[in-house]
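G., before I forget:
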Amino acid sequence: MADSQFAVEKTYEEINARIKAGEAVVVTAEEMVIIVKENGPVEAAKKVDVVTTGTFSPMCSSGAIINFGHTNPTIKASRVWLNDVMAYAGLAAVDIYLGAAEVVEDDPLNKVFPGGFKYGGGHVIEDLVAGKKVQLRAIGYGTDCYPATEAEKEITLADLPYALLVNPRNCYQNYNCAINLSDKTIYTYMGTLRPNGRNANFCSAGELSPLLNDPLYKTIGLGSRIFLGGGVGYVTWQGTQHNPDAPRLDNGSPRKPSGTLMLQGDLKGMSPHWLKGISMQGYGTTMAVGVGIPIPILNEEMAAYTGMSNEDLVTQVVDYSFDYSHGVSRNFGEVTYAQLQAGEIEVNGQKVQTSPLSSVVKARQIAEILKQWIEDGDFLIEKPVTTLPGPKE
Amino acid sequence: MSSKIYVLHFPKETGDQPIISQLVKKFDIDFNILKATIFPGNDGLMVIELNGHKKNVKNGLSYLRDCGVTIKSISTIIRRDDDKCFQCGACTGSCPTGALYIKRPSMEVIYDPDKCTGCGLCVNVCPVHAMDVARNLTLNSLE
């Protein structure tokens, strides 16, 4: 084997052997920032085997594939509602996909603006994982093999033959900091934005965020085992809108929204603490998803990536009153996550208060839980079957 | 000095009497009326901030009680459901008084009822409806 480019080299097998033996050194991404600062990446890579990350925030592209079991007489369900929230039923007879952003039927939506959007697919999923009964209603057109044209039953997660959380886009690697430069309040998926740039909302766990700790997708890939919604899940593909070619800093981290992940996991192992139905005033419903991804410290490069702090990570300030909605690629400055978390940034020479939509408190808890799972020896680090598309050379 | 926000409920018999002005005249208390409503039954509701020497505020409050006014602290009618709250911080951008704020560097989201004026702006902004402000501070909230 040719001389390695790294001073420290560890394999997945070595790290997993240490986890099984209860000898692995596991730290959270916040702890790793301090370790790398004090020891440098080479020493940190010698010391630390795994860094755990976490994030807990609204992730609209989430949902569940559910098989609700055959009825008697059987039905080829063509339209299905769970607690009056419509699920996509254009699959086999009793398979459906329930999306987090689907709003309950008869919701007034934005007719009286801004709408409240009290209940939707994300809330149904939260109710299911909380063990609550959910009313299922289905209609079909009737066939010889599936004669029923309607069916109604109460379901619980425990009774469902199959329920899989399938999130086509989670864990956005970085996200815009949103402001509103118009003269009236706007209601967005980035929250309520007061006029004339009076507040700014951002949505990333910063130094705790999974993909900001592996900016070039060297360890997070197809098959990575993760914390998902309180249970175990997997990275199953890059997410929709995955954009590895976003502009990056010299440290590899993206300056704009870039990578995304598709995640899946058994809903039956999840908890309402880590999957929460969300209502964004004037926008719609969605779901807050808790995700934690372990990052094996294979070499000093991974130590350096996971050692990046909020001072090293940036995003752009984007106007959501016109620019975002009209595809104007313009920003009002680049700010660090340290500035955003400190509560104030400067936009056009004016001081602006910042508020997070992503819970750092919960992100930290997820990183701690994942650390515990690994320290307990029953959560191993999976080597990706294949890595995610990275930036063009 | 004492400075605190109170919720006052005026029984219908007091609807036509100048009561609050007496707080200035008799007790040297500064006040700031944040919300005032008279209901169809002639009873009234007021959210008011009182500033003055502790002793004066105490005497003023007992004067109000003698007039039949029911006094509650705002924290008894506004609360945060900590099971629902997931500590995101979305509310902190809308709270005009800093009653909802982020403690740094832990990034915990804190609710301080002493600073809350009951404006209710947080209610619809909260993505999980964790802020429970009795609807428009109606009479039901006092019962």
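Helices of chain A lie at 12-20, 29-47, 121-129, 300-306, 337-342, 360-375. Chain A is about 15% helix and 30% strand.

More on Monday.
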